[in-house]
Amino acid sequence: MLEIRKDPSAFPGIDAEALHRMMDEVSAFGGGPDGSTTRLTLSREDGLARDWLAAWFAQEGLRLEVDSIGNMYGFLDWAGRDAPCIMCGSHLDSQPNGGRFDGAYGVIAACSAIEAIRRPVAETGITPKCNFVVVNWTNEEG
Questions:
Q1: Which end of the chain has fewer CB within 10 Å, C or N?
Q2: Is the model's pLDDT at 133 over the cut of 80?
Q3: What is the rounded distance in angstroms from the CA atom of residue 122 to the CA atom of residue 61?
Q4: 15-136: CATH architecture
Q5: β-pair type (72-76, 63-66)
């Protein structure tokens, strides 16, 4: 039977301060003085954001794969390379003068989710049955 936990403290929480810090870091790549973001696909700014994400994957021990069109996948291989995956993310590119949260928030939220669930998994000794993947879609904005 499925165990239902009603106590919110029983679930890992997102570190809001870390999430905001990561958003600020990514928003600096193409951020304008008015708070807008211009990070067009394959631009210098997009490249800087992609480099930032690749460095974060390496720092956190995620396996990076980049497909033939440039989509980035950061694998947290908890259950082995051939196990099913839960994939979360979005895109780091933007429209001209787009909002700082457009797309980038989904990637940062997925990174924050990994940070939130890693410690409880390690502390409990639970062996997840699937892997977690952070994705950055290339040219989502077209």
A1: N
A2: yes
A3: 14
A4: 3-Layer(aba) Sandwich (3.40)
A5: antiparallel
